Amino acid sequence: MKKTAVAVVVMLSFGCASAGDAPEPVTVPQAAPDPRIGELQTAMTELLERLDVMNSRLARLEETGATVSAPAAPVQQPVRETAAEAPAATEMAAETPEAPAQPMQRALVGAKLAEDYRQAIMLFGRGRHADARRAFQQVFDSEPTGDLADNALFWIGETYYAAGDYTNAVRHYSRVVNEFSDQNKAPDALFKIALAQARTGDLALARRTLQQVIEKYPYSSTASSAKAELQRIRF
Question: What homologous superfamily is domain 185-235 in, according to CATH?
Answer without folding.
Answer: Tetratricopeptide repeat domain (1.25.40.10)
